[in-house]
Specification:
- The chain is mainly beta.
- Helices cover 0% and strands 64% of the residues.
- The chain contains no helices and 9 strands.
- The strands form 2 sheets. The protein has a 6-stranded antiparallel beta sheet with strand order 1-2-3-9-8-7, with no helix packed on it. Strands 4-5-6 form a 3-stranded antiparallel beta sheet, with no helix packed on it.
- A hairpin with a 2-residue loop joins strand 2 and strand 3.
Length: 89
């Protein structure tokens, strides 16, 4: 697990949950999502960052992982965003 701060000083927790799978979560008043023509998420942007997109990188434990997919998790908690990212080296 790693904790990184966004540009406003809010914490984002990055946790490796399996082989090439990561959960990224943190408080966010709002978020932005873009989808491709098939309805797959192509970009997720937390308030204050990070902004993650398919083909972009996720730095975890000083290693850059190439993002393959992004899925939003339902947290049932107000102002808490959580996503699952699949990535490869």
């Amino acid at each position: 697990m790693e904790i990184k701060k966004n540009r406003y000083g809010d914490e984002r927790v990055i946790e490796k949950t399996g082989s090439g799978k990561f959960r990224i979560m943190g408080e966010s008043q709002f978020s932005r999502v873009s989808e491709d023509e098939n309805g797959n998420i192509s970009m997720f942007d937390f308030e204050g960052g990070p902004c993650l997109n398919i083909g972009g990188t996720l730095n975890f434990k000083k290693i850059d992982w190439r993002i393959l997919s992004i899925k939003v998790e339902d947290t049932k908690q107000e102002n808490l965003c959580s996503i699952i990212v699949e990535a490869r080296l």
